[in-house]
Amino acid sequence: MGRTSSKINKRLEDIIRGNTLPRCSASKAKKADSGAGGPAYEPVCRLDRNICHMSEFDSLSESLDKFSDVDPCNDSGFYEQTGSITGDLNESLNSSLTTVQELPGILPLRPLYFEVPGDNMVRSREEVMDKLKNLMKEQRGAVITGTSGAGKTSILLDMVVNSHFGRPSSPVSDFYKNVVGYHFMHHQDPASLDLAQVLHSLAAQLTQHPALTAYRQHLLDRPDLAAMLSKQALRKNPGESLVKAILDPLRQLYKEDMIEVDQAIILIDGLDEQPVNSDSRSASIAEFFSSTCLKFPKWLKLILTHRSNRTELTQLMGLPYVNLDLDEEDIIEYIESRIFTEQRIMSNIVYTDERRKNRLLVKLVNFITEHADGSFLYAKLILDLIAGGQLIIKSESFSAVPHNLKEVFTLLLNLRFPSVSSFATVSQIFSASLASTRPRSLAQIYRILEFEHGFNRFKQEYSKVANLLVTRSDGSLMFLHREFSDWLQDPSNKFHSSPLDIMHNKFVGYFSSLQVTSTNKTLDFIYHLAHCTAFEQTGELVTSADKKFLFLTYKVDDPTLNKVNDMAESVSFMDQKCLDLLKLALKTKSSS
User: Fold this and answer.
1) pLDDT tens digits along 551-590
2) Taking Cα atoms as reference points, which of 264, 272, 279, 299 lies closest to residue 143?
3) Mean pLDDT on 536-561
4) Closest CA to 381 of 38, 117, 24
5) In the predicted structure, residue 1 carries a pLDDT above the cut 90
6) pLDDT bracket for residue 247 (50, 70, 90)
7) How far does CA 36 lie from the centroid of its chain?
8) Average pLDDT over the chain, rounded to whole?
């Protein structure tokens, strides 16, 4: 309290006497004007892509044609490699790679596409970075833990932004240049939860790093090793492929002094991210690295993250923990820096008594810090509400200020939707996004829901929650944070999403109008078909299960079903219902 109070007194004096806002040294995030919604921070990780945004389309028909044959779905969260092909958007990309593989000097490796859903970078965590730098000198790596919203992803994101992969504007520091690979797991993104795709993507990044050109050349000289890094080979034997095609070559090249860094770092975020509709498979990636981390050369480090209550995921690795929950200093500095550098926040803190203004500010900082409980997400959203004028601070009771994230989300939606009917369309958009196996574009959701009032009206409704269900640069939608998507599924919440089985019915109707020929579409179709209720009618001789497998065999040909069967068990959302339906369809096909 004493440190905070004296700091606030000094800053208040600067503001009142000089009538200026002091610079903030604590937060290094760039500010961006976000209009009435309050100040935002630029998503510094987002790189330019040759993909149109929804707002760039002149007409509905053009937008629907643009997205009708593209699933912006098999790529995940946060970054795009310069000059690389971004993910398995559809089968045509896969077929085009067959030609690429035959070209000399080009490896058949592609990194996944990652992008932060929203303004994830709130500040630089210099003390945490210092701890990591010291640990990397003596340890094989480190595990960053913290409560949900504590900034674990932001820390790794900061490292990637400042590395070779992020195109930093200033020269890369010795620590950041050691980042040779990264992966961000996300529960909405099945590609990011597939071990084979994780390893394939990391291998691609390793070959693109300027310090590992010798490794790239080694794979070009040894096509047998490059073949071990295909997704098919990685699904069959990931451990053998990791050791023989990645670790052993790197170890040998390092001994021969052909690796141009003394230490290298691989970042993996979100080991505790759970696959959609499955309780058992997310740990497979954590278990894999737990069983293989001791095989890594000592100079090749791992920095991993997960929530504080999931230490069982990494306890066998023997790596030191960096617990963000134990340090309040960072979040206090973030809160103070925003209050004293953003005029819109200060203007919405009303002093009823000039003599008590210092005390009010001290108590506000302490209130947000206490209720944040380590969550930067809570602190950011509260400060955004104050900056936008939705919260006016008038007294020390803070009776109108939400006490936790659930209350924050409730307030955000209450402000935008005063009645149940006004929330109806957005509720369906949320529900479709929750039911989907992967991020979808707004145009796709429009078609799935069969909205009757035109696409322009649909876009207007979506715009009310565009900062909660964020449009990524590939046009797909992703929830701002997992805390929000989990909250939407809480039955006690007044904005609880529509029953997902109804949405599965709508997805089945959507896929029934398409040609289901690619593996991605087939996997999605099987998932929604297995979970829909559209075929459940009483008093009929043909069972619902029979109708479903008959419909599946009608829509999808034998070669595609067999191809899907080879990879089904490695896909995060393919639960037992889906596998049983696929098995029944294949059995019927083979016996006919």
Assistant:
1) 999 999 999 999 999 888 888 899 999 999 999 998 876 6
2) 272
3) 85
4) 38
5) no
6) very high
7) 26
8) 81
Instruction: Let me know: does 518 contact 550? Beta carbons within 8 Å.
Output: no
Backbone torsion region of residue 105, taken as left when φ is above 0, otherwise alpha when ψ lies between -120 and 50, otherwise beta: left
pLDDT of the residue at 582: 94
Quote the tokens at residue 100. 């690429």
- How far is Cα of residue 406 from the mean position of the Cα atoms in its chain? 20
As a three-state string, the secondary structure of 234-266 is HHHCHHHHHHHHHHHHHHHHHHCCCCCCCCEEE
Residue 267: which region, alpha, beta or left (left: phi > 0; alpha: psi -120 to 50)? beta
- Kindly report, residue by residue over 355-404, the tens digit of the pLDDT: 778 889 999 999 999 999 999 999 999 999 999 999 999 888 898 999 99
pTM: 0.80
Contacts of 309 (CB under 8 A, 6+ apart): none
Local structure of residue 21 (DSSP, 8 states): P
Buried b (16+ CB within 10 A) or exposed e, 121-145: bbbbbeebbebbeebbeeebbbbbb
Which residues have CB under 8 Å from 492's CB, separation 6+? none
User: What is the full DSSP assignment across 28-40?
Assistant: -PPEE--GGG--E
Contact between 38 and 388 (Cβ < 8 Å): yes
Closest CA to 444 of 514, 498, 499: 514
| pLDDT for position 274 | 59
Span 124-153, average pLDDT: 92
DSSP code for 305: E
The pLDDT value recorded for residue 66 is 38
H or E segment to which residue 280 belongs:
none
Q: What gap in Å lies between CA 553 and CA 550, rounded to an integer?
A: 5
Are 264 and 298 within 8 A, CB to CB? no
Q: Max CA-CA distance within the chain?
A: 87
Instruction: Compute CA 65 distance to the chain's CA centroid, rounded to the nearest angstrom.
Output: 27
Tell me the H-state helices in 388-441: 405-416, 420-435
- Sequence-ordered list of residues with C-beta below 8 angstroms from that of 320, at least 6 positions apart, any chain: 135, 139, 142, 143
Whole-angstrom distance, CA of residue 550 vs CA of residue 390: 54
Q: Is 257 left (phi over 0), alpha (psi -120 to 50) or beta?
A: left
pLDDT of residue 455: 95
Comparing C-alpha atoms, which of 509, 429, 524 is closest to residue 477?
429
- Token pair listed for 51: 């993909």
pLDDT over 70 percentage in the chain: 78
First to last CA, the chain: 77
145 by DSSP, 3-state: which? strand
Answer whether residue 45 shows pLDDT above 60: no
Around Cβ 496, how many Cβ atoms within 10 Å?
15
Give the pair of three-digit tokens for residue 457: 């009206």
Residue 82 has pLDDT above 50, yes or no: no
CB count within 10 Å of CB 487 equals 21
Q: Which helix (H) or strand (E) holds 183?
A: strand 179-184
